[in-house]
Amino acid sequence: MKDLLWIAALLAACNSTDRTKNAIAQESTIAKEKKTGGSPVACTNMIFFQPGAEIYAKSYSASGKVQGSTHTKIKEVKKENGMTVAYVEASDTSDRKHITNMKYNYKCDGKSIYLDLASMMRSTAQDKDAQFEASLIEYPINVTAGETLPDASGTMAIIKGRKKMTMKYHYKDRKVEGKETVTTPAGTWKCLKISNRVEMEIDFPGLDEKAKKMMQSMTNRTKTTGVTWFSPDFGIVKMELYQNGKLQSKNEVVSVKR
Q1: What is the pLDDT of residue 221?
Q2: Which member of 112, 130, 179, 209 has the greatest number of CB atoms within 10 A?
């Protein structure tokens, strides 16, 4: 259960190679729905939109033990449908030395960065039977303390034979708590601190209604929250996951190559 909650709560960074129908449809409406206010910035000011840049991040347990690492390389940056799109290749290495290779992308319109939640299901990316659906999650670049950000939700489905396990996740109450200076082994950034609440619905195959209700009750009793530190001059710098107010894990950038 803890692993599933961490998968759902990750913001870490990042967009799937095969864009879902939901994500594609939303791209065409972002410009219409985006709130006005704040001057557009050059997306290429951020390292995640600089070709050739490499970003290294590590994830840690609550006790500080390294649980995994991620290497991300920006392969190409293009202009598409009025947006700047960065095509990325990444690899995750777990504490068990298992490596997962991924391809995804970031999008920026000068006022916000948009990520596809489906791409963040990294632990199942190597499963050819995994199916993803997700809405885009937005990180406005020009915001002030107290602002609320749009909710986001999606569904992950894993099919094995005739059995299908689904997990619906909802990011709610996304709020800009304020500005903080964050230092990691990679450097120091002025960041926006963004908090959110995570709600989940999990459906395992073969469970009767009573078992499903018990599982959902257990999930509901676990209050899962996340905190993301986002630098408009860089991107996502650090993330933390909490369960019932207790730190469970964190992820942070540890090295950058330009």
Answers
A1: 75
A2: 112
Q: How far apart are CA 170 and CA 159, in angstroms?
A: 21
CB 53 within 8 A of CB 86: no
pTM beyond cutoff 0.70: yes
* Chain position carrying tokens 């006790």: 63
Residue 194 tokens, joined: 């963004």
- Enter the tokens of residue 122: 């990294």
Q: Which two tokens stand for residue 110?
A: 């000068």
Domain residue limits, the chain:
2-257
Could you say which residues of the chain have pLDDT below 50?
A: 1-37, 122-126
Three-state SS for the chain is CHHHHHHHHCCCCCCCCCCCHHHHHHHCCHHHHCCCCCCCCCHHHCHHHCCCCEEEEEEEECCCCEEEEEEEEEEEEEEECCEEEEEEEEEEEECCCCEEEEEEEEEECCCEEEEEHHHHCHHHCCCCCEEEEECEEEEECCCCCCCECCCEEEEEEEEECCEEEEEEEEEEEEEEEEEEEEEECCEEEEEEEEEEEEEEEEECCCCCHHHHHHHHHHHHHCCEEEEEEEECCCEEEEEEEEECCEEEEEEEEEEEEC
Rounded CA separation 88/98 (Å): 20
Question: How far, in Å, CA of 49 to CA of 147, rounded?
Answer: 25
